[in-house]
Specification:
Elements lengths: L2 E7 L3 H12 L4 E4 L11 E4 L2 E4 L13 H9 L5 E3 L4 E5 L6 E3 L3 H12 L4 H21 L8 H9 L3 H6 L7 H7 L6 H14 L9 H8 L7 E3 L4 H13 L3 E3 L4 E7 L4 E6 L3 E9 L3 H7 L18 E10 L3 H4 L4 E5 L11 E6 L14 E10 L9 H14 L8 E7 L1 H8 L30 E3 L9 H18 L5
Parallel strand pairs: 1-2, 1-12, 2-9, 6-14, 12-18
Antiparallel strand pairs: 3-4, 5-8, 6-7, 10-11, 11-12, 13-16, 13-17, 14-15, 15-16
Bound molecules: flavin-adenine dinucleotide (FAD).
Flavin-adenine dinucleotide binds next to helix 1, strand 13 and helix 15.
């Protein structure tokens, strides 16, 4: 009987981070993926001659003091990434002028002052940027956060410094408080902008997001933003190649259905749709909701950490291919549009648009075409069923045509996905994606801990700490690995 050091569930960026660090330490792992393709919500797929992104389109984290950069340096893997000159543009459906989210802080502040009025914009953004620098720096210093065992507390304590003590209280204030502090709480246009930006970076609004995470999320565009040639699957495959070269195995189309812990033998038994395997440890890179449904011996207190559909989001997403090089005309490839009227069924009042990079000739079989991803949130995915998705598709087309992205005759192919497609693609309960949103009632130290039991089961991915976007799940994967190390699993 083969006994693996660790069996890892899923090939999302969370799982792959822990798997990569285990592989670097010569631990033989088996990685099981239910889908035919790897990467989960960070992936790309071919359809009708075009490469579409499965979920994520924007990428940060390759700068100094950021988790993705730390991880890739640890495993010595290089990604074919191009730095974007302008990270994003924001548009309002009925307004001509758009807002450019420059990476340079001064340039961005000047732009924000011109758009939202001069009052306190500089002070607000300088404060947010300082907080974001602190949060990113601390994330790689406090690698056993939130602490649970004495060894974690000891690690935390050893790495505590004055700036952490000074900034920690901001976890007790929400973004509404911050807007008030800078007297921006009556500037409705600015509040709408902040809310739409927080929705894509923290999955929630000003009242629910604490200042530490909110300020960091708002400064997403003030860090180096990257485009990966050929789609984000090319972030995933070099990591997988490294893991396989180090002797670990990856199986696609194999879904984990049950996990048992045999206390006497200190072994996990993993039953899939095809086989039964044994390992000393497991790392679940799938949501806590899914994990607890298949994990027979999970401690009962974990059930209290589960967030149900009413507080979660799925996504409505469209993949569009057009016979026009719009990406050469627009200054940015990522755009957010504030809608005049919310979309039918899902009530979303903004959409996010990402274009293939103008220099990337690998996303289409045909020259001079652009591949577009459009996405928006679907709140409470279990309840908010979409009866006729062609209505939403038409509303999105109308907005993109009105904003001059393209004309109807430019469209050569399109398709869309709802919570049902997400459920199939990722196996996530209710088809929820984007992880657990930020909630003000859940303080950073109360988030889901990487240890699932006291034996050898761990959790990473976007329902575990800190769980926001690719760079967040990467940090969660690093933390799961550090906790395994602290538990004596990596000798
Ligand atoms: C539409 C959309 C847009 C987004 N945009 C961005 C963005 O621009 N930038 C950004 O940074 N983030 C973005 N995100 C968020 C980001 O993509 C995710 O948070 C992140 O990729 C999640 O990684 P993960 O490892 O937690 O999980 P996943 O990517 O979901 O990976 C989990 C994997 O486990 C597999 N699996 C599930 N159940 C089983 C089972 N029982 N057995 C075996 N395998 C199983 C799944 O198939 C999946 O491959 C976006 C997400 C969505 C949905």
């Amino acid at each position: 009987m083969d006994i693996f050091h660790t069996i890892i569930i899923g090939t999302g960026m969370g799982s792959l981070t822990t798997a990569g660090l285990l592989a670097k330490n010569n631990k033989k792992c088996l990685i099981l993926e239910q889908n035919y393709l790897v990467g989960g919500c960070t992936s790309s797929y071919w359809r009708k001659g075009f490469v579409f992104e499965s979920g994520a389109t924007t990428l940060v984290g390759l700068s100094e003091n950021m988790p993705l950069q730390y991880f890739l340096e640890e495993i010595q893997v290089k990604i074919p990434a191009t730095k974007l000159e302008i990270p994003m543009q924001i548009h309002w459906e009925n307004e001509k002028k758009s807002l450019t989210r420059h990476q340079n802080l001064d340039a961005w502040i000047e732009e924000a002052e011109a758009f939202f009025g001069k009052k306190n914009q500089r002070a607000f953004w300088e404060f947010c940027f300082k907080i974001s620098q602190f949060v990113w720096k601390t994330s790689l210093v406090q690698k056993t956060f939130p602490p649970k065992k004495i060894s974690d507390f000891w690690h935390c304590l050893k790495n505590t410094n004055f700036s952490q003590l000074q900034n920690a209280p901001y976890a007790f204030y929400n973004m509404d408080w911050l807007l008030k502090k800078f007297q921006l709480h009556e500037n409705q246009k600015f509040i709408d902008f902040v809310n739409a930006q927080l929705l894509i970076t923290a999955q929630n609004h000003t009242s629910e997001v604490n200042v530490l995470f909110g300020a960091t999320a708002l400064c997403y565009t003030n860090y180096d933003n990257y485009y990966v040639e050929g789609g984000l699957i090319n972030l995933v495959t070099p990591i997988l190649d490294f893991i396989q070269k180090k002797g670990s195995l990856v199986q696609t189309r194999e879904a984990v259905e049950k996990i048992f812990y045999h206390k006497k033998d200190k072994l996990y038994e993993i039953k899939t749709n095809k086989n039964t395997y044994f390992s000393n440890n497991i790392v679940s890179g799938i949501p806590l909701n899914n994990t607890l449904e298949i994990f027979e011996n999970a401690p009962s207190y974990l059930q209290k950490k589960v967030i149900e559909s009413e507080k979660l989001n799925s996504a409505f997403q469209m993949g569009i291919a057009i016979n026009k090089e719009i990406n050469k005309i627009l200054p940015a490839i990522h755009h957010q549009i504030h809608l005049e009227k919310p979309l039918s069924y899902i009530n979303a009042d903004s959409i996010f648009i990402s274009l293939s990079h103008p220099n990337d000739l690998t996303r289409s079989d045909l020259p001079a075409h652009t591949v577009i991803s459009v996405s928006t949130h679907i709140a409470n995915p279990q309840q908010n069923n979409i009866l006729d998705k062609s209505i939403i598709e038409q509303e999105i087309f109308d907005v993109l045509i009105k904003k001059d992205f393209f004309q109807k005759e430019n469209v050569v192919y399109y398709h869309s996905s709802t919570q049902k497609s997400w459920e199939k693609w990722t196996n996530r309960k209710y088809g929820f994606v984007g992880g657990y949103p930020q909630f003000f009632g859940i303080k950073p130290w109360e988030m889901v801990e990487a240890r699932l039991d006291g034996n050898g089961a761990y959790l990473c991915g976007d329902t575990a700490y800190p769980g926001q976007g690719i760079v967040g799940v990467c940090l969660g994967g690093i933390i799961a690995f550090e906790k395994m190390k602290n538990d004596g699993k990596i000798k």
